[in-house]
Amino acid sequence: MPxxxxxxxxxxxxxxxxxxxxxxxLEALAQHLNDANTAYHGQDAPVLDxxxxxxxxRRNAAIEAAFPDxxxxxxxxxxxxxxxxxxxxxxxxxxxxxxxxxxxxxxxxRDFDAGIRRYLGLTRDATLAYTAExxxxxxxLSLRYEDGTxxxxxxxxxxxxxxxxxxxxxxxxTIPQSLEDAPAVLEVRGEVYMRHDDFVALNDRQAKAGxxxxxxxxxxxxxxxxxxDPNITASRPLAFFAYAWGEVSDPLAQTQSGAIxxxxxxxxxxxxxxxxxxxxxxxLSHYHEIEAARATLGYDIDGxxxxxxxxxxxxxxxxxxxxxxxAIAHKFPAELAWTVLExxxxxxxxxxxxxxxxRLTPVTVGGVVVSNATLHNxxxxxxxxxxxxxxRDGTDIRVGDHVQVYRAGDVIPKIAxxxxxxxxxxATPFDFPTQCPDCGSDAVREEGDAVRRCTGGLICPAQAVxxxxxxxxxxxxDIEGLxxxxxxxxxxxxxxxxxxxxxxxxxEARNADSLAKLENRDGFGATSVRNLxxxxxxxxxxxxxxxxxxxxxxxxxxxxxxxxxxxxxxWDALTAALDQAAPAALxxxxxxxxxxxxxxxxxxxxxxxxxxxxRDAAFGEVAADxxxxxxxxxxIDGIGATVAVSLVTTFAQDSERASIRRLTDQLKIAPVEAPxxxxxxxxxxxxxxxxSLERMTRAEAKSRAEALGAKVAGSVSAKTDxxxxxxxxxxxxxxxxxxxxxxxxxxxxxTLIGDA
Length: 756
Known about the structure:
CATH architecture of the largest domain: 2-Layer Sandwich
Helix content: 25-40%
Radius of gyration: 31 Å
CATH superfamily of the largest domain: DNA ligase/mRNA capping enzyme
Structural class: alpha+beta
Low-confidence stretches: none
Distance between the termini: 57 Å
Number of strands: 24
Mean pLDDT: 86
Oligomer: single chain
């Protein structure tokens, strides 16, 4: 599994997300899901296994449900497949070709049946028939017949527009060219696939010819159908199963099963394992029959599809945005095999996540040779979940172990179990690195994070390209003519490399001294180069908040960057504060670790954990000025310890700090001031709200205070000027009183700012 995807799946509980964090995660989810759709549907080269893809879609839907205002206009929830590839004519489907919802357990199916009954108003005992058919692992195809003649064939594409592959479809033996006694207009839908024996023979021919070897029958079928030369398609052993229909001038039947029988009578190949079943238990029985026969079918299936049989019921149930309510796909569990773990490699993702990958003695799993498998994170290797719960009965994974491998979603391999009886006597627990293997920077694990991350940031080559993409993004430096593609081009360039942000601002000077000038290269010209350098120069003056966001520091989004910039105003004040707070940030991390150890020890001893002494001890030797700087930083409303630790540790890394300094030497950093409120009685003051406000929400109070030039902090410190205390004020009021800070009730606050 790609490290960036693992980051998303191991993300925080949705209930703890802020709107900003939810928006950022939905953006990342959209990117990965769209990339996966394009790779699978458009390039016939999957990059995610089905289970991971489904998990990403479920998390995306859950975040959208919790934050409906953050849902994107291009949400993956509203999309099917991928845009048609270039090179083919486009076909607009009269009726959209939708995808299916998924069931992963028997209970999921029972829930599906119960939901159908509720929607239709049927009792639990009422008869409700379904069809069950194997889910073919191939490429969806729509065939349009007019007056019995095949006139058009199209792939699903994005569900609305597909690719015109009519000439290719005509070469497939199991697709009839003409029909007798068919409706005047009939759009037949089904799956193009390749049988196992034909797949093996094709790869043998490909190997002898020195041509591309296909990874699996699905890729071979999809790649064969989507050839620009129909003669190539004709040379490939493709077949077609019909299982549905789109536009039709006259109904095929009154039931799903009757319509499938009609398609078979018209000459289409339909699956002989399709069966009509009364209720979920009959469906499950047939599911397990198909599962048991899976290895002997001679073609790939990855589950069973259930559809309400009565077409009137289907019509009443209708559709969601991308799936029908009356159908669902019940996926099979993964296939298993045993092999030897030869080594564990650490890969670094774009967010710095250290992702362990198992190197395996090659083994065939589900017809595919597997030599690598994901190990998720250090907890998974150690035999525990992120919260300490044992997995695999607490058995860790060691080099030399005999491990059980499965292909999740039949694509990406994972390790399910370890055979302790065959563990070598000299096998030792895996020592997970605490330094980045790519750049040597510290690799830290924050509280609540399932993965350890490199803190090298921009100087880490594994992260550098993605960091640069972020740096030039619209919300950051937004340099015209320097987008993601250009970043990749310059990163790999040997004459004028751009490996860190500072290199962008020295590009013009280096180009002047270079023999391989940009204006002499393909894709560039004197005008475009001149415009690029002008766009770069236009960004040499940058507001503090945009610079801070552009650095790509984990947890520091646009809103956090703006709040921090408003609090410190200028770059020098910010960096001085971060340097001063560094000892306290390290103490905070040490306190977290000590607290975890104390909780574990207390649980083992059967006593109550003593947290306060542990945390007091961790902070005991931190100087007062460091504590003040730390309290000031975490006291910024909306920041807190997580963001503060990320900021401080980033700037505390010598290599990262040097990279940032090289950048800032090229820039003029504009301060971010509070709104111009010369007559405001609270301009420049730090205000803390506590207790319950009765005449406005806390968000309204904060917004009003900031509009008047005040800084709103989340905690009381020596720098607090005013505490606004509503009913229920507790420790903050006590601390304000001990520090002699002026305290107002809500009415007095509103009078002060002129809103009484």
